[in-house]
Amino acid sequence: MKTKMRIAANVLEILLGAGLLIGNYLGHVNEYWSGLGTALIVVGGIFLWKQFRYRTDKAYKEAIDTQNNDERNRYISLKAWSWAGYLHLMIAAVAAIILMVADRGDLVPFASGSVCLMVFLYWVSYLILRRKY
Amino acid sequence: MKNKIEQIRKERGIRQEEFAKLLGVSRQTISSLETGRYNPSIFLAHKIAKFFDMTIEEVFLFDEETNLEG
After folding, report:
1. Could you tell me which chain B residue has the CA closest to the CA of A72?
2. Which residues does A contribute to its contact with B (CB < 8 Å)?
3. CATH, residue B36
4. Cβ neighbours, 10 Å, residue A44
5. Within 10 A of A114 (CB to CB), how many other CB atoms are there?
6. What is the pLDDT of residues B13-67, one digit of tens each?
7. Are A71 and B41 an interchain contact pair (Cβ–Cβ within 8 Å)?
8. How many domains does chain B have?
9. Domain enclosing residue B61, as ranges
10. pLDDT at B68 over 60
11. Which 8-state DSSP code applies to residue A68?
């Protein structure tokens, strides 16, 4: 069921991409949308091919299943997200200070706002997870 | 946490690839477990011990000091 839903989503992506390309060809949309259409076709095509391979190639299916169910892989993935969030926070905080020193006060709210949003999201996630576990 | 996975696996003549396949994990996971870089979940530890027909304590050597250090 999950695989069928994914295949349907990929086909929809390709159709949407094709629609945008045709729209550009007929002069209804500009190059931005045709570029997006090309990207949708490429991404949808790659994922569709992967889904097809998953259903037909037994060795590939086994490798993907192992990769998805491997607990170390899941642990590393969670750790990587945690690092990414922490690094984003640090970079945004340093950027806010640098922008302040560089007299670019107009950009400081974006950097400091990003820090506040991250801290807020962390606390919301923490409160939700604390109830769950 | 130290473990005897590599020792027991070699004693029984099982290759890392085979062992990984039997447990449904990647070969890299087995390698990381054996070198002590990764500590398994209780489920995987149980699966490994069961596979070797041993208890968890016989395969994994719990070190309280390491646990306290985090």
Report:
1. B29
2. 66-67, 69-73, 75
3. 1.10.260.40
4. 20
5. 17
6. 999 999 999 999 999 999 999 999 999 999 999 999 999 999 999 999 987 666 5
7. yes
8. 1
9. 2-69
10. no
11. H
Count of all residues that appear for chain A in the document: 133
- And the tokens for B1? 């946490």
Chain B residues in contact with A69 (beta carbon < 8 A): 24-25
Quick one: pLDDT at residue A3?
Answer: 76
Query: Could you tell me if B28 lies within 8 Å of chain A, comparing CB atoms?
Result: yes
State if pTM tops 0.80.
Answer: no
3-state class (DSSP) for residue B57: helix
Give B4 to chain A, closest Cα distance, Å: 19
Q: Is B37 on the interface with A (CB under 8 A)?
A: no
> Which chain A residues contact residue B41 at CB under 8 A?
71
Q: Map out the domains of chain A as residue ranges.
A: 2-69, 71-132
List Cβ neighbours of A12 (8 Å cut-off, separation of 6 or more).
A44
Q: What is the ipTM of this complex?
A: 0.84
